[in-house]
Amino acid sequence: MADMLSSSATVASVGGGGRVLLPSATKRAVTRSSLHLPSLRSSSSSSSSRSLSSSSRQMSFQKLQSRPLFQKRRAVVSSASAAAAADVSQLKAAREDIKELLKTTFCHPILVRLGWHDAGTYDKNIEEWPQRGGANGSLRFEVELKHAANAGLVNALKLIEPMKTKYPDVTYADLFQLASATAVEEAGGPKIPMKYGRVDVTGPEQCPVEGKLPDAGPPSPAAHLREVFYRMGLDDKEIVALSGAHTLGRARPERSGWGKPETKYTKDGPGAPGGQSWTVKWLKFDNSYFKDIKEQKDEDLLVLPTDAALFDDPSFKVYAEKYAEDQDVFFKDYAEAHAKLSNLGAKFDPPEGVSIDDPVPEKFVAAKYSSGKRELSETMKQKIRAEYQAVGGSPDKPLQSNYFLNIIIAVAVLAILSSLVGN
Ligand code: HEM
Description:
The protein has 423 residues and is mostly helical. The protein has helices at residues 54-57, 61-65, 74-82, 88-105, 108-119, 142-145, 154-166, 172-186, 221-231, 236-243, 288-295, 305-312, 314-325, 327-343, 378-390, 403-422; strands at residues 250-251, 276-277. The chain is 42% helix and 1% strand. Helix 4 packs across helix 7, helix 4 (88-105) crosses helix 8 and helix 10 crosses helix 13. The N and C termini lie far apart (92 Å). The site of protoporphyrin IX containing FE has 25 residues, from helix 5, helix 10 and strand 1. Residues 16, 109-110, 112-113, 116, 152, 214, 216, 225, 242-243, 245-246, 248-252, 255-256, 258-259, 304, 306 line the site of protoporphyrin IX containing FE (HEM). It is found in: Plastid, Chloroplast. GO terms for molecular function: heme binding; L-ascorbate peroxidase activity; metal ion binding.
């Protein structure tokens, strides 16, 4: 399975200017033509997967649009889209399968990129679904997979396809986002407050036009990031936090045109070897991305122009510095921004979406007022809760320690006053 992620993987075309950015003194440009670009061939010889071969590249745009990547799944695609989108038990089971897949293939990074690229086409200025783009499963269609920015993502789709077959009531849109959030969490990142029930688009004609995702090497990286992310309704803090996802994974010259063919951190995998990572431990989700792009000391670590902008631009820098210093703050902001990204443009069924996380057991702080030897009975908890609520409080928030003291003082003052009045 890991072979599916090998460097011989499909490349639709090379985007981002085809330049390898080398950190510090040895920065040099490698033109696209000087990079070795493999033929547009799928790494898998499986007949179920359709390769983006050079002959398919020559196909007319209309012909491509009408052809789903996995033709035999078409019935599944339409029936799933017609059904209610959220099946909690299937979603939970799919999550367990994704965890197993991660353990054997180490595909965390590409699954995160898959979820982001499905959602990141959203345009807040367009109201209609699915014209507004976003997390709607459109990235499963060949016409969108062939966008330059999506080079290599066909490999992620191949990993997701068996789950779609096994859990037909889960939509592609949900599977992409479930896979991404699970990958972040399993890599050691924060718990992401996700909801599910995204409806899938039904045909390739509903795919967004090319050019919605950010370019890694635009003339003014900070302005470009703002233009693209503001269009999605995201702000500076969210741009910086989400960029922190590059703590995972690598760039490969034969996919995006960025990164070295291999470094000391990637030559032995895990998973398919090669590429250039942003961090030393590129399968661990932490705040090392911010530390590394700030320092730019290690020539084996990647810094894209859009990464460098996070410390060059004064507004981005405030957040980037904070995240380099404090992983807890990064995790909190990342989890919120990731959840928001995963919902962009999505149409939910039911409209409010569903959670697949078990409810957190009630935190009953009032228990500390018991003897401490045994748990309070439910009746006692209800009684205590009612008493707290009667004074406008809640047992979930411990009262100030001087609360009872204040009552005693008030009673004492009243007693003194009434005795004075009595006299
Ligand atoms: C800020 C603008 C962004 C730019 C310009 C950008 C650009 C890129 C590029 C050029 C690659 C290399 C792809 C390859 O060669 O295989 C990449 C990989 C990646 N990106 Fe981004 N990205 C951006 C934002 C994001 C965001 C918001 C996320 C997730 C929330 C993300 C997650 C990833 C991951 C996990 C990888 C590694 C994929 C792998 O190892 O297979 N990126 N990105």
